Amino acid sequence: MPEANARAILLDIEGTTTPVAFVYEVLFPYARSHVREFLQRDDGSEDLQSDLLALKAEYRSDIERRHEPPLWREDSAESELESATQYVYWLMDQDRKSTALKALQGEIWKDGYLSGQLRGQVFPDVVPAFRRWKEQQRSIYIFSSGSILAQKLLFAHTHEGDLTGYLSDYFDTTTGPKTNAGSYASISERIEVPAAEILFVSDINGELDAALESGMQTALCVRQETGATPNSIHQIVRTFKVIFP
After folding, report:
1. Are residues 172 and 108 in the same domain?
2. Nearest to 189, CA basis, from 169, 209, 159, 208
3. Which of 4, 17, 52, 152 has the smallest count of CB within 10 Å of its CB?
4. Are residues 56 and 165 located together in one domain of the fold?
5. Residue 139 contacts residue 8 (beta carbons within 8 Å)
6. Counting Cβ atoms within 10 Å, is residue 157 exposed (0-12), middle (13-18) or buried (19+)?
């Protein structure tokens, strides 16, 4: 089990606090079905314009790298809307950890959460663990490839209520890739807690490898109840009940 000296707990979301099925069967389909409608608003908001500029920049990068994204036409407003929509679909089909895509998805999900069409999901052991860790005076942070906006929305609108009061801060890919040790060093510096006193919990070995390289404690979260124990150099936890009980 994790060392008792951990002052901070850094958590992944998908497969760790939240079922993978919720992300792939609820959130992603919702974003896909509403992206055209969202882009078509063209309300002149800075956020939307920023999202579009970021998408275009990533599109140009894909062209330079010969990734063959769908053609982006700019000969009319309608053709540009269609091109942006198709490019978003293409990014989603590849499960791209794109900062531009994640920012756009967060804005789309915001509408869904605020309208009540979406409700965040967390595993049953999450809320009791949050309460317990707070009572132990351990700070809780989130590091996810989803945008900070998307993270806040998910935890603010769960079936268990608003959980954001338990969370001290949020980090996304603007901090750096989750498989880069430098990202975890940056988080350690930002929260002013030595890496050795931070426990990172994720369901992805590659992310945990990077966190371990930075000096953090690590735990591989394995949520499925059956099946063989995966090979990992990281301690394995199947429930938050065993983390600082």
Report:
1. no
2. 169
3. 4
4. no
5. yes
6. buried
- Here the tokens at position 32 are 């896909």
Residue span of the structural domain in which 151 resides: 8-18+121-242
Tell me the per-residue pLDDT of 159-175, one tens digit each, with 9 for 90 and over: 999 999 999 999 998 99
Dihedral angle of Cα 201, 220, 150, 9, to the nearest 10 degrees: -10
The answer to whether 183 and 194 have CB atoms below 8 angstroms apart is: no
Residue range 123-144, pLDDT digits in tens = 999 999 999 999 999 999 999 9
User: Are both 110 and 133 inside the same structural domain?
Assistant: no
Question: Is 235 in a helix, a strand, or coil?
Answer: strand
Q: Determine which helix (DSSP H) or strand (DSSP E) holds 109, and give its type and residue range.
A: helix 99-115
Structure token pair of residue 53 = 């500029």
* 3 — pLDDT class (breaks 50, 70, 90): low
DSSP character string of 172-215: -TTS--TT-HHHHHHHHHHHT--GGGEEEEES-HHHHHHHHHHT
β 8-11/217-221 pair status: unpaired
**b/e sequence 51-76, b meaning 16+ C-beta within 10 Å:** bbebbbebbeebeeeeeebeebeeee
81 and 38 in one domain? yes
**Cβ–Cβ under 8 Å, residues 215 and 32:** no
Give the C-alpha distances (Å, rounded to integers) separating 242 from 9, 167, 229.
Answer: 14, 20, 16
Q: Which of 1, 4, 2, 6 is nearest to 196 (CA)?
A: 6
